[in-house]
Design goal:
With 205 residues, the protein is mostly helical. It has one domain. The chain is 79% helix and 0% strand. It contains 10 helices and no strands. Helix 2 crosses helix 4, helix 4 packs antiparallel against helix 10 and helix 5 packs across helix 7.
Length: 205
């Protein structure tokens, strides 16, 4: 994984060259896995989208098609994670005396998503790891499904459009193109900072 992330631009171009049309579905599967399977938060998200946009700027892949494919994959991934959380909740939160899986925590999660669910689902898209667990937590908290679907779709299109669009606009600039691997790693670090800072603050309280 570190080798792939360290040379994400080269890995992506090799993928597109080797698989052609099928690379759209492979990239879609990666995005689906990161957003739809709670056990795969380590898959590249923001950096992958940015480098995909840069590849589109060089003509290796069609910008409109890849945005549609990845937006659909991100939306479908969130829905999958949401319904997994909704299915798991009754089985996990049975024991009222459990320290870690107390039904009271489920009630608090439900109250949180009733109040802040929409903006949480959208903003979580831009934070690695959080975007994997947010739809799962929304399902656990039994957020209203129709409402979740709307915000999930808006978040998916916004996230994919922003990150792929940024790569498309700036990825072909010589300075950025020559340092794309470093920039993709930088994107990972920068987007992880909010979660890291929150974790540090939480550990001190």
């Amino acid at each position: 994984m570190l080798e792939i992330l360290g040379h994400l631009d080269q890995s992506l171009l090799a993928l597109i060259k080797d698989y052609g049309f099928w690379s759209y579905f492979i990239l879609g599967a990666i995005v689906f896995g990161e957003t739809g399977l709670v056990v795969l938060p380590m898959l590249p998200g923001d950096s992958l989208l940015f480098v995909t946009g840069a590849a589109a700027a060089s003509g290796a892949i069609d910008i409109g098609s890849i945005i549609m494919v990845l937006s659909f994959a991100a939306t479908l991934g969130n829905l999958s994670n949401f319904y997994i959380g909704r299915w798991v909740a009754p089985h996990l939160f049975k024991n009222a005396h459990s320290r870690w899986l107390n039904p009271d925590y489920l009630a608090r999660t439900h109250a949180f998503y009733e109040k802040h669910g929409g903006k949480t689902v959208i903003l979580a898209r831009f934070i690695p790891i959080v975007r994997t667990y947010a739809p799962f937590a929304a399902g656990l908290g039994t957020m209203e499904a129709h409402r979740f679907q709307i915000y999930s779709g808006v978040g998916a299109v916004t996230w994919v459009g922003t990150m792929v669009g940024a790569g498309y606009l700036f990825g072909d600039i010589p300075l950025i193109k020559g340092n794309l691997s470093l920039i993709s790693l930088g994107i990972i670090v920068v987007t992880l900072l909010p979660a890291m800072i929150a974790g540090l603050r939480s550990s001190r309280t």
